[in-house]
Fold this protein.
Amino acid sequence: MSLSERLSKEIETLHQQGEDTVELEELLQEYINLIGQAKQNRERARETYQNGDNISREYWTAAAEELKDANSVLVRISQVLKTYRQGVVSLNGDSTLVAKGNGTVVLSGDMVAEMTIDNAQLVIKDHAGDAKIKIIGNGSEIFLELDNAHAPEQKRALVYFDLTAKVNISGSRITVMVEGKELDLKVEGTGNAVLSGKGTYMAGTDEESKHWVSQFGSDFEENSALEE
């Protein structure tokens, strides 16, 4: 199934769920048109090149520009779809994310996270050098206050394996990845969260429980329009 077909299927599902998909439909049609034009110009470029015509360069240039524009449209489509996808959460500073489940959670932004984890892998990357971390487990309490804003980037990450504990993490610019079973999280602040696996979550004022995405793949903008 081509990328445009997969996008069309996802948009149709949203439409059936009662969502307003007019913008997405228009963007998808624009993307399809640009891809079609690029294909035509590539074919013209090949034909004129084989005939020794210098105009082939103009066709190649036009095709390249159309592919560039198509990928820009693709980025916009992905941005709009993210607002509908379950498992992808944006925190605006006034909202709280509460989640439970098995799988992988990635957090990024200016936030405070409280979590209970069991036999999990935990990675904490501190981009600003102001992260504070408290780990309570096995009858002990560890408190880390990172003061390494001037350290090399590669030294600003902490990695734990097979960790069973209660963990509190805060920072103005952090990225946190936790992978394991029986994850229980509460997150506040500004940033983004991606929940992949099997679980439920609630965010903001939405009282409806949502599901983690079963398999979180690459964003559409990471795929080249040449895939068509």
Remarks:
- Confidence is low (pLDDT under 50) at residues 215-228.
- The first helix runs from residue 3 to 16.
- The two ends are 10 Å apart (CA to CA).
- The chain is about 30% helix and 45% strand.
